[in-house]
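I had to read the description of the data format several times before I understood it. For illustration, here is how one protein appears when written out as sequence plus structure tokens:
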Amino acid sequence: MTDHDEEQSHVIERLGELGLTLPVPSRPAANYRPYRLAGTMLHIAGQLPLVHNVPKYVGEVPTTLTIEDAIDAARLCALNLTAQIGAALDGEFGRVEAILKINGFIRSPAEFTSHARIMDGASDLLAALFGLRGAHARTSVGVASLPRGAPIELDAIVAVRA
């Protein structure tokens, strides 16, 4: 077994160990691509906390959605992001060199300041699935609204092997 194969099987094994199943990647809701691979750079479009293309969470944090639910929503966004990575790479997770950066948009009132705590749900899952290759830079910002009433949206930049 090559290092590439071991890295690929690690992601699949970790999903199972965590009791997770890789979802079918969501389709674009408008005129954009769910991902764009250019050379060794993979850009993943914004991912919402969807299950079977239906929002699992809607609302504003912490007004109508608890912080714990928002953390789970961020984790679900990261799982959907992982599904898009798999789609872009034909399931070859071993091609992922590094998740370079994720951007998190959190629907919240102006006085809310716990964005980082919520984003840890996404960061923790990516680290669990990809190990050191999942360690990333990140931006977390509060916003007034998001598509489909979502409380969180994530996008990512990933370095991949050609």
The two ends are 19 Å apart (CA to CA). The beta strands are 35-38, 41-47, 50-51, 54-55, 96-107, 137-143, 152-160.
